[in-house]
Amino acid sequence: MVGFQSDHMPGNKCNGNSNSFPVPDRHERLMRGRELRKSSRASPDSNSISNVGSEIFEHDLRLREDNNSAAPIVERYLEEVAAAAAAARGERKDGRPFRQRLLVVANRLPVSAIRKGEDSWSLEISAGGLVSALLGVKEFEARWIGWAGVNVPDEIGQKALTKALAEKRCIPVFLDEEIVHQYYNGYCNNILWPLFHYLGLPQEDRLATTRSFQSQFEAYQKANQMFADVVNKHYEEGDVVWCHDYHLMFLPQCLKNYNHKMKVGWFLHTPFPSSEIHRTLPSRSELLHAVLAADLVGFHTYDYARHFVSACTRILGLEGTPEGVENQGKLTRVAAFPIGIDSERFIRALDLPQVKDHIKKLQERFNGRKVMLGVDRLDMIKGIPQKILAFEKFLEENPGWHDKVVLLQIAVPTRTDVPEYQKLTSQVHEIVGRINGRFGTLTAVPIHHLDRSLDFHALCALYAITDVALVTSLRDGMNLVSYEFVACQDKKKGVLILSEFAGAAQSLGAGAILVNPWNITEVATAISKALNMPSAEREKRHKHNYEHVKTHTAQEWAETFVSELNDTVVEAQIRTNQVPPRLPTETAVECYLQSNNRLLILGFNGTLTEPIEREGDRFKERELTVHPELKQPLAELCSDPKTTVVVLSGSCRTVLDENFKEYDIWLAAENGMFLNPSKGEWMTTMPEQLNMEWVDSVKHVFDYFTDRTPRSYFEEREASLVWSYRHADVEFGRLQARDMLQHLWTGPISNASVEVVQGSRSVEVRAANVTKGAAIDRILGEIVHSKSMTTPIDYVLCIGHFLTKQDEDIYAFFEPELPRSKVTEGVKFPVERVSSSQNKGQRPVSNSEKKTNNHVCRLPRRPAPEKISWNVLDLKKENYFSCAVGRTQTNARYTLASPDEVVAFLKELHTLSQS
Ligand SMILES: O=P(O)(O)OC[C@H]1O[C@H](O[C@H]2O[C@H](CO)[C@@H](O)[C@H](O)[C@H]2O)[C@H](O)[C@@H](O)[C@@H]1O
Ligand SMILES: O=c1ccn([C@@H]2O[C@H](COP(=O)(O)OP(=O)(O)O)[C@@H](O)[C@H]2O)c(=O)[nH]1
Fold first, then answer.
1. How far is the CA of 128 from the centre of ligand 1 (A)?
2. Strand ranges (DSSP E) for 111-211?
3. Cα–Cα distance between 157 and 160 in angstroms, integer?
4. Average pLDDT, rounded, for the chain
5. Which ligand 1 atom sits closest to the C-alpha of 381?
6. b or e along 543-574 (b: 16 or more beta carbons within 10 Å of the residue's beta carbon)?
7. Bias category Polar residues: which stretches (predicted)?
8. Which ligand is nearest to the CA of 271?
9. Which pTM value belongs to this model?
10. Substitution site in 301, 412, 457, 557 for ligand 2 pocket (most atoms within 8 Å of beta carbon)
11. How many other C-beta atoms can be found within 10 angstroms of the C-beta atom of residue 884?
12. What SS3 state is found at 670?
């Protein structure tokens, strides 16, 4: 039967990381948290999320009580999880709950400062979706850290402003004019903002842009570090730090560099574009890496999250999973958290006398005309010219509506120092002037265009009297104006025309008329449809959206994000607990020095290999080679008479010969099916009755997929076939591999006696039992015999990047703490010489290997290691070091992160053994 092996395997009993303890899974924990939050909100005496925390905490403790027979490891694990959970939720040590401190870090504070004198300031609420949304967040002890929007060069001014802001729980970051120019106007608003909204990098004056790019990027990094310095100064243990938006992509990295225990989340309020757009950015990789330092990364929609994961996969070559992005065992969780508004605030406002007064005046003013409304910052992403042109087309086609409809366009000035925004202002003014000239009368104009912002009450009144709201963003992270309009429309039940390129289209699409803002005709038709819509349909559409806006609030958004962030940290702790500890290199060296007969078993690919350079997401086409820094130390370790070094690899003989021919080393190729004693001849250890009848069918499948996957290839080996897509497009390669695995799993070879092994960029089909774990006893027998060992082996170091559980059986083989009979169970010692061609069904040997094969003889029968090993192995548990490289789920006792770490360790071993 086909055995299926992937990269995942549970921890074992020896590395102390396995237990069957029923830790509630992530969704279970989050769902419980959500329910508890809901009920605590409904109950008047418990309005703090810390109560939710206590209950989860108690649950963890109950689990501990129920499992009091479990090993101390479980106890320790539980204590750690419970402590992490408690800290995550902000519980005091004395058990009393308190509200968790939340440090909200955004470029802009929710207030803008206006200087009134040397040491006096007035503060005004800033406009914009981010501010509106975060003002709705009330459950946390929140502090804001950000820029107050003014340059304050003098100390007196800075002190006075700091004091004034403190009353609003705001902490300023002081940025000087030059930094603001380069970082905010330059890198943020001239580079990242257009790029993330699919407007591309600036094209005009290309050279000037290219020249200033580097200095703007440096200013961006510098500004991010300035934000980090302020956060670090105010951070207290247990705080959650929530970084916002494209201005602060470096912040997670700066914060984690300072304190890796800090709980850091990052949320993007704009779209994250397709990886094809992001890859045009010169600093594309640095930005992605910096964001990935966060524990949780959030976006408004699933699409943006998907694009981000895809950019990390395609540009950084990292592993994208449904949960996030994985880099050397560290998972950055990536998910969608659609923002909302504080809907109750808008609904309540409609009952205020001043709002009612506004409403009355507006109704009188526009009596007899339908009101259409646009509220946008005057930004090219908002599609204001497109909106006005569509309105013009509607007027052209519907003369009957000329004096019966008016478009009120509130265009809030924004980023006025950026030339692109200045150009947009003149462009809009010109179009509005033209249309008003064309369709206006002495007493009325069709478009009222205001270059200013409105206060909250005036805005609510405007939303309330509107018949049709028109949102035509070319791209928009979410667009809260559409939410606010819906919240204020419960009486009127007006129609929302919404761009399909706004994040809000995902949530309000059911009730809105969705349009492509680039299609002026479509928008004009939508205007007509909206103005003529029967009331029953308007009511039905409004109901959908109103329900959504009322339930998906800003508060809910922030709570969900922060609770997922807290949980991500708990989850990471659980993961860390399951990962074996790092190889204690000092001890491993010490024990090595004190032993007399050492055996070093080393993997090759992913263990001793030189890092392969990438071309974007692809590996450069190059043969695997041993790490250059290892050459001399390895040669000297091999020549030590007290040390036997074996390289045990999946690679074929030729590759091992090419890399290790000059060393006094044992080579075991093709997962131990071929063995070459130091500088000797290759022998086969292959079991005689290896069934190879499956080979032709698998070759057929591999051929088919190779043809259809550019830059993929396959290799024929004696007992296996390997299809590799390491040089192919990584996402396409993965999809193809998935299809291929599905086919192998269910297709013609599903009953063959093979193992299908999924590597990180390969699929391998091997005859069953062709594993390193099964081969090790044969190899050991041969070493013992051929070296005529008289001293028992008293030190074993086994390091590898082994992909399957069966390969990893090699770790258990030497494990002094496991009963030996169990380890060698089912493993047959090699039989006597039989010509391989006599094997029925065995595939013909490939041309490239025929030469070598001429010299291959079969390994002679040796006493089974069950018999010899007790004499040969005198291995105390403290002298055994099994270590997995670049893997977190493993049966080894220890781990190292990469071949670089293996190389550093072996160099140290070599240096100290020389001294
Ligand atoms: O601070 P400014 O440069 O004046 O810009 C104002 C804000 O604009 C952007 O808002 C975004 O966030 C909204 C809420 O999530 C979302 O609905 C909208 O689609 C986005 O454009 C920007 O991302 C903020 O940082 C700015 O403060
Ligand atoms: O005169 C105005 C016009 C708009 N807004 C607010 O600005 C925000 C705009 O957010 P949106 O998500 O629509 O877009 P952004 O400007 O953030 O890109 C909304 O909350 C509006 O209430 C405001 O405070 N005053």
1. 5
2. 111-117, 120-125, 141-147, 170-172
3. 5
4. 84
5. 21
6. eebbebbbebbbbbbbbbbbbbbbbbbbbbbe
7. 41-51, 834-847
8. 1
9. 0.80
10. 412
11. 28
12. helix
Backbone φ/ψ region at 453: left (φ over 0), alpha (ψ -120 to 50), beta: beta
For the Cβ of 129 lying below 6 angstroms from any atom of ligand 2, the answer is yes
CA-to-CA distance for 215 and 777, rounded, in angstroms? 61
Q: Which residues contact 332 (CB under 8 A, 6 or more apart)?
A: 291, 292, 293, 294, 295, 296, 297, 324, 325, 326
CA of 655 to the centre of ligand 2 (A): 63
d(CA 750, CA 767): 13
Atom from ligand 2 closest to the CA of residue 131: 20
Q: Are residues 493 and 636 in the same domain?
A: no
CA dihedral 760, 764, 767, 768 (to 10 degrees): 30
Q: Which of 126-130, 206-210, 748-752, 778-782 bottoms out in mean pLDDT, i.e. has the lowest?
A: 206-210
Q: 499 CB less than 6 Å from ligand 2?
A: no
Domain of 296, CATH number, reads: 3.40.50.2000
| H or E element in which residue 561 lies | helix 554-578
Amino acid at 841: G
Phi-psi region of 225 (alpha: psi -120 to 50; beta: other; left: phi over 0): alpha
pLDDT tens per residue, range 866-900: 444 446 788 888 999 999 998 888 999 999 999 99
Residues 216 and 316 both lie in one domain = yes
Name the pLDDT band for 213 (thresholds 50, 70, 90): confident
In whole angstroms, give the CA distance from residue 483 to residue 511: 12
Task: Assess if residue 74 is contained within a domain.
Answer: no
Site of tokens 């979706």: 129
pLDDT, residue 197, reads 98
pLDDT tens column, 269-282: 999 999 999 999 99
Cα(146)–Cα(234) distance, integer angstroms? 13
Q: Are 299 and 245 in contact (CB under 8 A)?
A: no
Q: Give 146-164 as a 3 state SS string.
A: EECCCCCCCHHHHHHHHHH
Residue nearest to ligand 1 atom 23, measured at CA: 269
**Quick one: 763 and 781 in the same domain?**
no
Pairwise CA distance, residues 331 & 295, whole Å: 8
Ligand closest to Cα of 414 equals 1
339 lines ligand 1 (CB under 6 A): yes
Identity of residue 884 = A
The CA-CA-CA angle for residues 126, 131, 134, to 5°, reads 150
Q: Got the DSSP string for 825-850?
A: TTPPPP-S---GGGSTTPPPPPHHHH
Residue 275 sits in the same domain as residue 357: no
The one-letter code for the residue type at 565 is: L
- The rounded distance, in Å, linking the Cα atoms of 652 and 615 is 26
Contact 503, 474 (CB under 8 A): no
Note whether 708 and 680 are same-domain residues: no
Residue 5 one-letter amino acid: Q
Whose CA is closest to 253, among 294, 302, 284? 294
Same domain, 203 and 178: yes
How many other CB atoms are there within 10 angstroms of residue 736's CB atom?
20
Shortest CA distance to 353 belongs to which of 461, 255, 454, 451?
A: 461
Torsion of CA 68, 69, 73, 79, to 10 degrees: 0
Measure 105 CA to ligand 1 centroid, in angstroms. Answer: 14
Residues 777 and 763 placed together within one structural domain of the fold: no
Task: Please state the domain count of the chain.
Answer: 4
Cα of 130 to ligand 2 centre, how many Å?
8
Question: What's the 87 CA to ligand 1 centre distance in angstroms?
Answer: 32
Sole residue written with tokens 């109750």: 344
Residue 752: which of 736, 735, 769, 740 has the closest Cα? 769
Q: Are residues 503 and 523 in the same domain?
A: yes
Domain encompassing residue 228: 101-336
